[in-house]
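The records we work with from here on pair a chain with its fold. A complete example follows; check for yourself that the lines match position by position.
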Amino acid sequence: MLAGYATVCVDGLLLSRRERGMRIRYESVGVLKLAQLGVDRSFQGRGLGGLIVADIVRLAREISRRAGCRYLTVDAVEEVVAWYEGGLGFKRNRLMQEHRIRLALERQRDPERLAISMRFDIRDG
């Protein structure tokens, strides 16, 4: 039985000056994106999702030693935003979310249905 899984891909992230602070000069930075995360229902609530994310953070840190990768990102549905923020230390990507909302409106799509763009700084901790 497959208890849980994750898929990752490379991506770029837009950050406002306030979000990136003084240490990051560029508006767009390279990231490793947690594209999919799944835990079988019979294993949910036991911490397996957090263990999988921790393993992906280790992978992102390893990649960052060889390539331009500063953050791990995820597009989270509203129901799990608090889990990513509180339990795992992710932050919302304000500029990226604003950009995605503008695109949705231009394409006449409902921005309320968008996932929330979030990031974890792999150089912290």
